[in-house]
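Friendly challenge for the regulars: who can give me the structure tokens for this chain first? No prize, just bragging rights.
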Amino acid sequence: MRRDAWVAICLLGAGWVLILQVMPWSDERINDLGVYRVYADQMLAGNLPYRDFFIEYPPLSAPLLWLAGLPGTDYDVYRVSFAVLTFVLGVGVVLLCGELAGQTGGARRRALYAAALMPVVGGAMLRTHFDLAPIAITLGALWLLCVERPRSGLALLGVGTLVKGFPLVAVPVALAWLVGRGLRRDAWQGAAACGAVVVAVSGVAFALSPDGALDAVDYHLGRPLQIESAPAVAALGLDRLGIGDSDVRSSHGSEGVHHPAAGALEIFFTLALLAAIAALAFAAARDGSTRTLVLASLTAVAAFAVLGKVLSPQFMTWVIPLGALAFAWRLHALATALVMALVLTLVEFPAHYFDYVHGDRAVMLLVAARDAVLLACLALAFVALHRCREEQLLDRRRAAVAAGVD
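First reply, four minutes later:
Bragging rights claimed.
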């Protein structure tokens, strides 16, 4: 392993000490470890997810929670073992960011070091949630696509989807990219591989307990606007303007916003998300470069976070690779905006989360600003994709001139 990779891993290790020991980065007063360890305890006792106990997550999340529980499910023991597990996943994210930078014409060292600094801007939520697992899987899938192993890459995106749904949004981007490169056979075979993984594993979960599996789906379909999401911020804003009354209620492990316009807002933002994914797929099909594939795919993940009806603080970890690679590609405006969004989240959560729930004006403005910055990040990513296309066309034109064609 190269020296830069070892330095980045050491830097990440120092960051893990920071988020374990030093406030405010180590603040874990709100976390999901209590839920995870209960699930782990159930599995270690021989009970099966969906059949014997309710679990809200996709099927392949369960092995991760079980693995962290092997040393024990006492809270203090589980806290440490989960921190070790997430550190290993963090190492994977760092190394994959470096590899993807190298595959896409970026500076590998810049990507490694930027990703290794994730604890500074992410805080304790990096080690108290399992989101680094689907992030690492998504990056691994994109690397496989970049090195011309599309079927394996798309199958791995199916695995990531079964760990925590969001990698699914990268699938249409990857398929469009393959079709745009003239690799239609690879595209349909990759789609079949992804579908086979999802259907096979979901089929096992459904076979264990049809009612339990459907309960997990209904749980998410029936979830109200999570209070930190962009549509919820819009609903609270309408309330402040005197347009309808909002009501904040605890449910689904967080606080949900109920408002007369909540349904319309959810539909509007869902349509915006679908439009964004379609535009990103079109951009990937039009420009067959590996950089466009990775940038468009990670932007789709960011769009899912900011335009969805749930934006739990740990979802912000999903944008860390995009920030690290933007820095490696010298897209400094995009990288800076993503860091700003992460820092605003760190300031708000968990220290001021309940101030926000109780309607503190300053914290409400803070969360609204964070969501606005994330929307700006999407715009900056689209601008970067357009520039990638222009640069590719310019390179082709230069090559044609050099060859005496033009």
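Strands lie at 225-226, 247-251, 254-258. The first strand starts at residue 225 and ends at 226. Your move, everyone else.
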